[in-house]
Amino acid sequence: MRRIVILVLLLSVSWTPLQWAQSPTASPAPELQKWDIWVGDWTFAGTAKDTPTEPEYKLDWRTQGRWILGGHFVELRGTWKGKGAESTSLEILSYDAVRRVHAYSGFTSDGTTWVATVRFGDGKVVETETDTFPDGKTATLRNTWILGPDGMSVSGKEEREQDGVRWTAFTVKGTKTKPPSGN
Questions:
Q1: β 153-162/165-178 pair status
Q2: How many C-beta atoms lie closer than 10 Å to residue 63's C-beta?
Q3: Residue 56 DSSP symbol
Q4: What is the pLDDT of residues 69-96, one digit of tens each?
Q5: Rounded distance, CA 43 to CA 35, Å?
Q6: What dotted CATH number matches 41-178?
Q7: Residue 153: CA atoms inside 13 Å, Cβ hemisphere, count?
Q8: How far apart are CA 174 and CA 76, in angstroms?
């Protein structure tokens, strides 16, 4: 009897990992395909203002987007150059199928983090975001992107509010230099 119990236990322990390995993987939600606009290599040029009282400066911004984790997310890496400085960023773009919301989280090399929700419209993308800076201060913003008909160009504007003051934080035009390879 004891041998049978041990044999049953060994079989059940060895069978469990096989069940995990064979469990079906969920397909990405079709709504995720809206993120495909940011997949590929983008180059943006324009002007920016970090605060409402500072002068505008020219900026050079580049991003590289790619599908990750079986097509369930997009990884967007960026480099922002302006005022003689450079910062890098990482964003993860996602879709919450339960809440039916497109969202993303981001992080920069200076310690700033952000979370956002996104609405896709006819040739337009609107992002509503909250940034948290390393000192604990926050800012809210709204990015509005107007997409070119071919999906290879975009113009964008960010309206930012911090400490009760609003200003245009950037205005850019972008070109996709490398189209997506597909999901």
A1: antiparallel
A2: 19
A3: P
A4: 999 999 999 999 999 999 999 999 999 9
A5: 17
A6: 2.40.128.20
A7: 6
A8: 15
Q: Is the distance from CB of 145 to CB of 11 less than 8 angstroms?
A: no
* Tokens describing residue 121: 């419209």
**183, 169 contact by CB (below 8 A):** no
DSSP string, 17-34: HHHHHHSPPPPPPGGGGG
Taking a C-beta distance cutoff of 8 angstroms, is the pair 174, 156 a contact?
yes
Residue with tokens 């400490």: 163
The predicted-structure confidence for 103-156, as pLDDT tens digits, reads as follows 999 999 999 999 999 999 999 999 999 999 999 999 999 999 999 999 999 999
Whole-angstrom Cα distance, residue 172 to residue 170? 6
- Pairwise CA distance, residues 159 & 70, whole Å: 34
Domain boundaries, the chain: 41-178
* Residue of 73, 127, 125 whose CA lies nearest to 97: 73
Q: Are 127 and 120 in contact (CB under 8 A)?
A: no
pTM to 2 decimals? 0.82
Q: For residue 166, what are the CA distances in angstroms to 4, 43, 50, 64?
A: 74, 26, 11, 29
CB atoms within 10 A of CB 23: 8
